[in-house]
Design brief:
By secondary structure, this protein is an alpha/beta fold. Helices cover 36% and strands 29% of the residues. It contains four helices and five strands. The protein has a five-stranded mixed beta sheet. The protein starts with a strand and ends with a helix.
């Protein structure tokens, strides 16, 4: 079972405000880099089970991407205490993801 929970209608900044410690993964279904990033997130979740992971299909939620000021996928939105802490686009390896998360 995947540790990444897909968001459909509830994907919004208001939803993010209700999150304490989470990573929201923006992707496209046919993006090969997104598939690799998903594997990295799965590995990360095994080592950080307290962090909630969500995925958002960027093609269905282009408006939210525009609100958050990014265009590329894969993109990770890091949420801490209901606030967007940082946004990172592009592929990362597990070590880079862990270091970025720890720096927030």
């Amino acid at each position: 079972m995947s540790a990444i929970h897909p968001l459909t209608d509830q994907a919004s900044l208001e939803f993010f405000a209700g999150l304490d410690d989470a990573i929201v993964f923006f992707h496209k279904d046919l993006c090969p880099h997104c598939k690799n990033m998903e594997k990295v997130l799965e590995k990360f979740s095994a080592k950080a089970p307290d962090v909630q992971l969500f995925s958002v299909d960027s093609e269905k939620h282009a408006d939210l991407m525009e609100t958050l000021s990014f265009e590329r996928v894969p993109t990770l939105v890091f949420v801490r205490s209901g606030q967007v802490a940082t946004v990172k686009s592009g592929l990362m390896n597990p070590r880079e993801l862990k270091a970025l998360y720890a720096s927030l």
